[in-house]
């Protein structure tokens, strides 16, 4: 499509919100807090995804079966400024686990988070699909813990009452086509990916 400026951001939704608000970004793909969705942003939910604790392949605590066995480890986590308590509740507190928060490094991008998991033996928490998707396959593993975590939703987020540009509509339609094609695929790799996902569109 001619005369289209494509700009991609890898960041938290908190970074995308001002860009969505002033119209310089057409849409974001991510997770939006329900209170924000009702006020100024609209969501089209694409899928649910399972979450788990992730460590590098060969991590000394890879065989752990409880979050309580990981409280003396260093962690790297990604969360919005107003998302700290919700994340701590989901990952630790509701399971009766309490971690020294000086052990937690907050990472603002997947690249930084990946480096700290692989190079510094840190634990993290995120989509289970990370452990079976390139380029992480064979490098990051999902731990089978007794504690279970709630699935999260991936959505297309737009300004409420704002019209998408033709380029944005084309992009999102192509994205949905690719997701649906892989969801219907009989390839072993695709079936493994969708074991951790539930398509909602």
Automatic annotation (TrEMBL):
GO cellular component: cytosol
Domain (LysR substrate-binding): residue spans on this chain: 2-178
InterPro entries xrefs: HTH-type_LysR_regulators, LysR_subst-bd
Species the sequence originates in: Pseudomonas fluorescens
Gene3D superfamilies per the UniProt record, alphabetical: 3.40.190.290
Protein name, as recorded: LysR substrate-binding domain-containing protein
A matching Pfam family: LysR_substrate
Classification via SUPFAM superfamilies: Periplasmic binding protein-like II (SSF53850)
GO BP term, pick one: regulation of DNA-templated transcription
Superkingdom: Bacteria
